[in-house]
Structures are given as C-alpha cells and as structure tokens.
Amino acid sequence: MVWDKIARLLEECDVVIEVLDARFPNETRSRKLEEMVRERGKDLIIVINKCDLVSRRKCEEAKRNIEREGIPVVLFSAKKRWGSRILRNEIRFIGLARGLDEVKAGVVGYANVGKSSLIYLLKGKGSAPAAPRPGFTRGLQWIRISRRIRLLDSPGIIPREEGDIRLALKGAYDITKLEDPELAALELIKMLPPRVLEVHYGIEAGETPEETLEALARKWNLLRKGGELDLDRAARRLLRDWQKGKLKV
Ligand SMILES: Nc1nc2c(ncn2[C@@H]2O[C@H](COP(=O)(O)OP(=O)(O)OP(=O)(O)O)[C@@H](O)[C@H]2O)c(=O)[nH]1
Ligand SMILES: [Mg+2]
C-alpha cells in the first residue's frame, strides 16, 4: 500500500493502530505514518505483535521506549491470544474521550506483521484470512468487532524507498519474488546470533555466513544435479522459516 492510499485510509478513521513485529519493533515502525496520523489529529495506538517470539524482557523494553514518546503501547500475540482485552479497552477509552458512539480504527503496518490475525482475534470468531506470506490482504475491509468498534483491515505498507532484501528480513517482502535469495539469507545469518541457528537446526555455525548456509544445505540434503550444495534452495528455506516465525531470537 502506498502513501496516498494511506492518507485516504486515515481520513476514514478516528484511531490508527500501528502494528509492529516484536522481533524488530524499530525496523517495522513507520515514522512517516505516525507523522501523518499526528497531522490529521487522529489518535495512535502502537501494538507490538508476535510477542511470543521474543523474550518478555525485550517486549517490555520496546514498550517502555515507545511510551516515552507519549504513545500508548499494547503488547500482543495474535497466536497466543495475548493482549486483546487491553487493546479493546484502549480503543474504547479513545472513543469515550472523543465522545463517539462508535469508534473506527484503522489497522496499519508493514506487510506480514499480523494485522489480519489481530483483527480476527479481536472479533473472537471466524477464521482469519491471514497467511504466512506478505501482501496477503489486498483491499481495505471494515470488520465490526463489537457494537461500538469497527476495525479497518489494510494491505501492508511497502515503502518503495526500502530495498527488497531489507523488507524480506522484516518479513515484508515475498521471498519467491526476491532477485537474490542467497544474499538475503546471508544478511539474515549475519543478523542472527549463531546460537539461534545452531539450536533450531542442530548444525554448527561456520566461521562465515557462507559456511553456515552451506551447513544448512548439507543438513537438509539439498544438492544440485552435479552433487554440489544447492545454496539457493537452502536460502529460500531459511528465509521462509524466518518469515513464518519459526526461529526464536
Ligand atoms: N508467532 C506468531 N505468528 C503470528 C502472530 N500474528 C500473526 N502471525 C503469523 O504471521 C503471518 C502473517 O499474518 P497476517 O495476519 O496475515 O499478517 P498481515 O499483517 O495481515 O499481512 P498482510 O495482509 O500480508 O499485510 C501469519 O503466518 C500468521 O499466522 C503472532 O502473534 N505470533
Ligand atoms: Mg492482512
């Protein structure tokens, strides 16, 4: 979703719920979005989702840092069903403060952070039209979660100014469309503490990211026709696991 579309979305809402990924709260925050919300005099709530994938300490620290800026923050996990009551109360509170009978809240954030999953948890029934790949939600869709609250689901923000590798590592870019998955996987390996890969996959990390990727390809028995390691497939498999949230950091 591009910026002029976001501007239109903002017009329709009283509150904006910016959803972040707990594994990289800073990188999935959009200052530009927050600025747009402020300019239009709307309320902002930040939800840190996927808290089940990081330590409690890291979640609390991220929450404190953002709250220092005067923005209310809710720690959340759509998977573990954490935080929905608190979030609903935050939204209601804003409705009361604004004297509204019905609050309209737009749920916005990078692709794949869990916007649709969050909405369907709040709704409390029905299966979530969510998917482990970015770019799943296409149009805007209003979903009523109670008599007083309506939520607007939206496609992920994809800032054109960011490269595809950086977006993929945040989970916000479709891996099948990456030009160079191997390069992205090497970046990911550099970013992760070696222990994470060692524990999850039972491999020994190499001296260099290349060696670690080779160790993974060996572990998974991924070979090309001539018998050499298929690093491209190993890279895609690692990136997919990462985007699906299989690795705990
Ligand atoms: N571990 C974990 N995974 C989650 C959580 N919330 C969502 N997911 C997973 O993250 C993936 C993306 O979820 P969606 O709800 O489709 O994300 P989205 O932000 O709506 O994505 P787009 O519509 O593509 O922008 C899915 O595989 C979800 O199962 C969570 O709290 N914890
Ligand atoms: Mg979605």
3D structure, described in words:
The protein has helices at residues 3-11, 31-39, 56-67, 84-97, 115-123, 164-169, 181-191, 194-201, 209-219, 231-243; strands at 15-21, 43-49, 73-75, 103-109, 141-144, 149-153. The longest helix is centred in the middle third of the chain and has 14 residues, at 84-97. Helix 7 (181-191) crosses helix 9 (209-219) and helix 9 crosses helix 10. The protein is 41% helix and 13% strand. The protein is α/β, with parallel strands linked by helices and 249 residues long. Strands 3-2-1-4-6-5 form a 6-stranded mixed β-sheet, with helices on both faces. It folds into 2 domains: 3-153, Rossmann fold, CATH 3.40.50.300; 180-243, Conserved Hypothetical Protein Ylqf, Chain: A, domain 2, CATH 1.10.1580.10. Bound molecules: guanosine-5'-triphosphate and magnesium ion (MG). Residues 115-116, 130, 136-137, 153 line the site of magnesium ion (MG).
Summarize the model shown.
This protein is an alpha/beta fold and 249 residues long. It contains 10 helices and 6 strands. A 6-stranded mixed sheet has the order 3-2-1-4-6-5, sandwiched between helices.
List the defining traits of the structure above.
Conserved Hypothetical Protein Ylqf, Chain: A, domain 2, binds magnesium ion, 249 residues, Rossmann fold, elongated, 6 strands, alpha/beta, 13% strand, 6-stranded mixed beta sheet
